[in-house]
């Protein structure tokens, strides 16, 4: 098998296994309902009639990005560590699949399996808004908001959720990840030094701000690491997306050496 075929085979297997997990769907549905009914006055349900569809769906994408990635990170946190826990590591080592293809397949399978419910949530929101606003363009903007606001953050979260438990444990990673998420994405930078409002925020603050035409959350706000807080706009949105995708590469590159070290020490 070529590396590409190996990766595709692992991706399909991982996707089928993950997409069937009830915990993935229960977590997504629970967090989406909580966010929908607990949104404040600036939430998408309170946007006035006549609001452009791109602003409506960008607002929904940002709202869902507040908590959904936490649930996805929890679900993906044991994708590599569970093989050893279940006694499958030796079996996988005996298969004609390289570690690189295994890691890439698990990453892509995990990413796509979480992207499906995330996209579905935005499509349901678009359907509800279409019934209220009578603008079918909301579906097209839901897709745009998903690609620009949601997907880069998911790619970032999936990479670290896959690899970091190899350095710690899955339970410890989950605890640290929750702390990081609130510190690095939603903590007001005026109150405490935080990554909130920088180009490194997987929340999608910069792309959402660009689509909405106004500051969505804290993008570009004054604070620590000011050089990572440019004025919001198209260029800043592209830079934020590119940085998140680039930062997803180092943990994936470390996965194969970490797996090799764990197997040698076993």
From TrEMBL:
UniProt keyword list: Membrane, Transmembrane, Transmembrane helix
Transmembrane segments: 56-77, 107-126, 138-159, 166-183, 234-255
Record bears the keyword Cytoplasm: no
PANTHER family, per the entry: ABC TRANSPORTER PERMEASE
UniProt name for this protein: ABC transporter permease
Record organism: Microbispora hainanensis
